[in-house]
Write a structure and sequence with these properties.
Chain lengths: 724, 367
């Protein structure tokens, strides 16, 4: 069949095509309307986001001074050689010439030949890590953002930096970037107090990004005052909103730039001169004893000095410490690992974070309690033989085991101290006497103080709680009681536990700061002052700010938000409590060693505090007193009072040497002393790990620091200073 | 042939709209350069091409389209030779061999090939206008289209193969393709499409289709990123656009190939919804004038030539705009008359010239 065909006769074919075309155009218009009108806002935001970039302007971190204005932490310029890939010349030969000349100046390898492998290797490293050459760093930066300067060599000398700047015309694209780096002029000496900085941790990244900080660039305090006062020191970052093109080239400011506000400056209570003297005294003592023993017996030590009337910490040193300048630019992995793995924990501030048995320095608590509770009177005489046989019972019906309890004098004189009164119990630090006061002794002390009442007095002197000092990582120590032992040791409290707790052994733990605070409370007639390391905080123009520290939240506020908050700037002495007026001692009724709370609270009688002071004074003045020795305070020109401690302990090392047994324990060495006796202006505590007898090893350190303190006072007075 | 009486029916509306589109395109290319030094010469080059194109329209229109219909055999062989030449000596641009570098300009024979296909198919369908629509009739027309499409396929340049196949299908349809033939073509096309996707097309083509279907929202470069930037440009235009030379996506170069493939997005950003719809309307008007010529033509050859040119313009514009609107995967087809590209513009001008030639001679001369 033959068919004829005409387009005109079959015009429906054309109409189908026109309809399809029309449909396509309608779809386009609808889609356009949807994209441009309905979704327009979203896409506009996206376009704005593409072209705008917010640049954070770093604030200058606050400076830290000691009480005399001596610099403890500052910012110094560090010079980095940077290359902006987009500004390098076009000719490869020119680029190679620049790299060669730069390499000759700075010693940085040129990085040629530039292989893919070498670029891949550089990708794995942080900026400026040794290894890759100039070409590798530039190649990496060029592929990411050609208009962003790439650091190719960090921390070059000022001379190299100036030379690079002079040759800017010959070397297009090469420049010097100045990076502020924290510098600690006193380094190791104050590292435990000042701390160091580190990158913003991931958990806080949202918070600090919100505040405008640059997560890659800005740093936070990681320990010490740098951490505690971080919010004071940080300042407020400034901000620039700029327009960039696709290559990241900055075109113009979209908003007026906001300048950064520098951080506030912190003035500490520390006297660097005393800090230096204390460190020297501690190091000399440790070194000479270790030389004498022929091995490193004394592994670590702490010295703290404070004004007991105001709470200002004047010195706080520890051995070993660490070099915080080595952590300033970056935290080197090997050094950090070395510090963390050191069993002596140099990164911890041992004065506030390390807990040790206090030993005999704790007897101040027992003495205050025994006298205040009427366990003993001042006129009562106590038999103090060299060895005491006491019965250890775990319950009232327990027939008990008889155990010998020895005084420290036993090895020299098995007869002991003989018959002594309460004050000489303190002066001689007689263990036997304090066993009797704490746990009772049939026929002499019928009802001992008991652990529950001892706990009350220990807490009143500052044990078993953090002090709230403006430093991170403070430990609370431990004053045990029967409930604690049941929960943590699964055992009943025994009479023996009370005896040894009375002399600061057994489960009793305290930080060196707590030991010093207990002495300070006695020295200051029962007033417990707030220890502080901050004297004042100044803004950029030198105005003193009024600020408060919240010791629980670890925050600085401009108002005392919590009852525990205390003023840190401008400095005023803060009183935590006064044991002679604040009824903070819970009253117990004790019968046959078992005590029940009566629900009442009481104070410590002022005469009791004064008696304990006299006991501490006798330790210096009595011929047999624990501090009346050649290298401590024999014939010292200033009236000193104090207390020594020789605390038995057991650690891994001692256990391995099989020394954790009766009569064979290794001992920590403690001494705490204050002066002048009548109007104390300094209290010093020294602690030496495995030091041995407190009066022999720790006391000379306290003596040397005391010497230094009064020497510095004399110099200051000669120069016109007033007041302590 | 240059008898003045023919020019009485010259379609000045069509020419006017083509010139308007080109002028607008040149202005837009100038904006889209956005300070890129290597692209700085493009507007003046496009002006040269457009002027050349204007002359080409007049020359082609002046010659009777039946002459071109008669000479199409020679043109067909010439273009096949050209494509072969390209296969052996052509320079590689963007991974595909599509250009012949002459001393002065690069010529893209594929663009010319599309016009030759239209002419050849029009001549074929017109010649067998009164024959029955047998399978043989259809197969022969497919061989004509395929003879050129095959050489384009090996470049490889899949989008222009599809353009040629669409022209073939549309011209066959208008020449009286039967329903069963249409259904078979569609079925075979579907099966071949699926088979081709898995076995025959290049990896980059496959990847484009995959990224279109399953885009990676975090891509910082590549097809997804380019499309996202183009959508951002288009979407941020709003009603009236951000103003000529003021679109941040275009001027700060976040959008790639903004003077060719994505020029429609640049228009959308700087002239908004109104501008984009006007551009669609301008191209729609050009297509309308071509279809009008097809309707008025005095013989099937004239109808089919005009119709083929209309389909070419429509399909290229539709694909380009659909890519810009993220309705289909990215392909390299330019926006007719507006995108930068010399050969493409010149070929379209030849097409317009042919349409003018048809419309000029649509009725017997009245002396």
């Amino acid at each position: 069949m033959r068919r004829t065909f005409s387009v005109r006769s079959q015009s429906w074919r054309g109409w189908i095509v026109y309809a399809l075309m029309g449909l396509v155009f309608v779809i386009f218009v609808v889609r356009l309307f949807n994209l441009q009108i309905l979704q327009g806002e979203t896409w506009t935001l996206q376009a704005e986001d593409n072209r705008t970039e917010t640049i954070s302007i770093p604030p200058q971190r606050g400076i830290i001074y000691d009480r005399n204005g001596y610099l403890l932490a500052r910012n110094i310029a560090s010079y980095n050689i940077v290359i902006t890939p987009a500004h390098l010349p076009d000719d490869q030969a020119d680029i190679e010439r620049i790299y060669r000349e730069l390499s000759a100046l700075s010693g940085m390898p040129t990085g040629f030949p530039l292989t893919d492998e070498s670029i891949e290797a550089a990708k794995l490293l942080r900026a400026c890590a040794p290894g890759p050459g100039i070409a590798q760093w530039v190649a990496l930066g060029e592929s990411n953002a050609p208009y962003d300067p790439v650091p190719v060599q960090c921390n070059v000398s000022e001379e190299v930096a100036m030379t690079v700047r002079e040759r800017a015309v010959e070397w297009p694209g090469v420049d010097i970037a100045i990076e502020p780096v924290r510098d600690y002029p006193t380094g190791t000496l104050t590292a435990n107090l000042i701390g160091f900085l580190g990158p913003i941790p991931a958990v806080f990244s949202d918070y600090y990004e919100e505040l405008g900080f640059d997560l890659e660039r800005d740093k936070l305090g990681y320990s010490g005052v740098e951490l505690a006062m971080d919010e004071v020191l940080l300042g407020v970052p400034g901000r620039r909103v700029i327009e960039v093109d696709v290559a990241g080239q900055e075109l113009r400011n979209l908003e007026p730039p906001v300048a950064s506000v520098p951080g506030n400056n912190v003035v500490m209570t520390i006297d660097t001169r005393l800090q230096l003297a204390a460190e020297a005294a501690l190091r000399t003592e440790i070194d000479s004893w270790n030389a004498y023993y022929g091995f490193n017996r004394i592994s670590s030590g702490v010295v703290i000095a404070m004004n007991p009337q105001t709470g200002e910490i004047l010195a706080m040193v520890q051995y070993p410490s660490y070099e915080n300048n080595r952590l300033a630019r970056i935290i080197p992995e090997y050094y950090y690992r070395q510090l963390v793995e050191d069993p002596r924990h140099p990164l911890l501030n041992a004065a506030i974070s390390a807990e040790f048995p206090p030993g005999s320095v704790f007897k101040l608590s027992t003495a205050t309690g025994a006298l205040n509770e009427g366990v003993v009177t001042l006129s009562q005489v106590i038999e103090a033989p060299g060895e005491l046989l006491l019965t250890e019972r775990y319950s009232p019906t327990d027939p008990g085991n008889v155990r010998p309890f020895r005084d420290w004098i036993f090895d020299d004189n098995p007869a002991g101290f003989g018959t002594i009164d309460f004050l000489h119990c303190i002066a001689y630090s007689s263990n036997v006497c304090f066993y009797k006061l704490g746990g009772g002794y049939p026929g002499e002390i019928e009802e001992g103080l008991g652990i529950l009442r001892l706990q009350q007095y220990a807490r009143a002197l500052g044990y078993d709680r953090v002090s709230g000092i403006e430093l991170p990582g403070e430990a609370s120590g431990l004053i045990p009681d029967p409930t604690w032992k049941r929960i943590n040791r699964g055992e009943n409290w025994s009479t023996g536990d009370t005896y040894i707790a009375s002399v600061g052994q057994g489960y009793v733990l305290s930080t060196p700061l707590q030991v010093m605070l207990s002495g300070a409370t006695i020295a200051n007639d029962g007033i417990a002052v707030q220890p502080t390391v901050i004297r004042e905080i100044l803004d950029g123009e030198g105005n003193v700010l009024e600020l408060y520290w919240n010791p629980f939240a670890h925050t600085v506020t401009s108002l005392p938000l919590e009852p525990e908050s205390y003023q840190i700037s401008p400095f005023v002495p803060s009183i935590r409590w006064d044991i002679t007026t604040d009824p903070i001692i819970e009253d117990f009724l004790c019968v046959d060693g078992y005590c029940e709370p009566t629900g009442l609270f009481k104070i410590v009688e002022p005469w009791v505090v004064e008696s304990v002071q006299r006991g501490m004074r006798l330790a210096v003045t009595e011929p047999l007193g624990t501090l009346n020795r050649d290298f401590s305070f024999q014939n010292y020109p200033i009236a000193v009072a104090g207390k020594t401690g020789t605390a038995e302990y057991c650690d891994d090392v001692a256990l391995a040497q099989n020394r954790c047994s009766f009569g064979n324990w290794p001992t920590h060495s403690w001494t705490m002393a204050y002066a002048p006796y009548d109007n104390p202006e300094v209290i010093i505590v020294a602690f030496l790990y495995n030091g041995g007898e407190g009066g022999v090893v720790a006391a000379p350190v306290v003596r040397l620091v005391m010497d230094a303190y009064f020497e510095i006072r004399a110099i200051d007075i000669a120069q016109g200073a007033t007041g302590p | 042939m240059f008898r003045s009486s023919y020019w009485r029916h010259f379609d000045f509306w069509l020419l006017g709209m083509v010139i308007l589109s080109m002028v607008f395109g040149i202005a837009m290319i100038r904006s889209a350069i956005a300070g890129n030094e290597t692209l700085a010469e493009l507007p003046s080059r496009q002006i040269t091409w457009a002027s050349l194109g204007f002359v080409v329209i007049l020359i082609v229109a002046g010659v009777d389209y039946r002459f071109w219909g008669g000479a199409v055999k020679w043109m067909y062989f010439a273009i096949v030779l050209f494509l072969l030449l390209l296969y052996f000596i052509g320079g590689a641009t963007f991974g595909a061999v599509r250009w012949i570098e002459t001393g002065l300009v690069s010529i893209q024979p594929t663009e010319l090939a599309k016009i030759v296909v239209i002419l050849a198919l029009a001549a074929y369908f017109a010649r067998y206008y009164d024959e029955p629509r047998t399978w043989f009739w259809l197969l022969r027309s497919l061989l004509i289209a395929g003879g050129i499409a095959g050489f384009i396929y090996i470049q490889p340049n899949l989008s222009n193969v599809i353009v040629i196949l669409v022209i073939w299908g549309a011209m066959a349809w208008i020449s009286g393709l039967e329903w069963r033939q249409l259904i078979v073509i569609l079925l075979v096309g579907l099966v071949l499409g699926v088979v081709a996707f898995f076995f025959f097309i290049e990896d980059y083509q496959q990847a484009r289709i995959v990224t279109f279907l399953f885009p990676d929202p975090d891509a910082r470069h590549g097809a997804t990123y380019n499309v996202l930037q183009a959508l951002t440009a288009l979407g941020s235009g709003g009603w009236a656009g951000r103003g000529y030379g003021l679109g941040t996506q275009t001027q700060l170069r976040f959008m790639k190939v903004r003077h060719t493939d994505f020029i429609f997005s640049a228009i959308g950003e700087e002239f908004g919804f109104i501008g984009a719809v006007l551009v669609i309307a301008m191209i729609g008007f050009i297509i309308y004038r071509c279809l009008r010529a097809a309707r008025l033509a005095r013989d099937p050859l004239g109808t089919l030539i005009s119709y083929g040119v209309a389909i070419l313009i429509f399909f290229q514009a539709a694909v380009n705009i659909a890519v810009n609107l993220n309705l289909i995967p990215v392909t390299g087809l330019p926006l007719p008359f507006i995108s930068y590209g010399g050969s493409g513009l010149l070929s379209l001008m030849i097409g317009i010239g042919l349409v003018e030639s048809v419309v000029m001679r649509h009725k017997p001369l009245d002396f």
